[in-house]
């Protein structure tokens, strides 16, 4: 369903009114602070990620609403402190987007998405409150797999990248050989370090081939859970527990699940 611009503004205004009302009258909402909301915000973000992975339109709308609620809630708290309000947030974001898209709002040119990414990083470095280094803008609390991708992506945007993407495979094989060598030595500390290097090189390969490693791994996680649940369900139907089954029996059920 498409709404007019006026309808969208009215809907956003309605949400602002409801949250202002709740902040004033609801004991739970009155009690909240930035610190108390933070863990809920993280949870809502992950719930949105689940909905996006599932491709469930209704859930996506619901979870986007929950995330938007938190954005507005933080703006209300900021307004109470006299720091900022929702208008400041919207205007700052609009200003940033205009500044970082000189190919749309200025004289620069960018014909591809890659051109835009490179321009984005260069422009960011020129901002008054820019990060001091290229990689300092990557949040420390990001999950490691996503952080590795973002680190590599940012480095690539300033020219630190493979000339040919096929060249990355030599690095992947090199890191795998180094990992295997340390594992044979039974050096757990070195093995852990080499495992990290190997995973980092795989993420780099995925990036170069425009594959999101976090999405890929999550799809495999879900596939494994579905197939393992099938084994567990069939075991219950047979009146046995998983630890009473042989590996051969579980493998047979696994193969059945793959066909389903």
What would you say this structure looks like, in words?
The protein has 260 residues and is an all-alpha fold. The chain contains 12 helices and no strands. Helix 8 crosses helix 10. The two termini are 35 Å apart. The model has no long low-confidence stretch (mean pLDDT 93).
So what's the overall shape? Answer: globular
Total strand segments? 0
Give the helix proportion (percent range).
over 70%
Give the ordered list of helices and strands: HHHHHHHHHHHH
Please name the defining characteristics of this protein.
single chain; 260 residues; mainly alpha; 74% helix; 0% strand
In brief:
The protein has 260 residues and is mostly helical. The protein is built from twelve helices and no strands.
List the helices and strands and how they pair.
Elements: H1 5-25, H2 27-31, H3 34-54, H4 57-80, H5 86-99, H6 102-105, H7 113-125, H8 144-157, H9 168-185, H10 188-208, H11 213-237, H12 247-259
Helix pairs in contact: 1-4, 3-4, 8-10, 9-10, 11-12
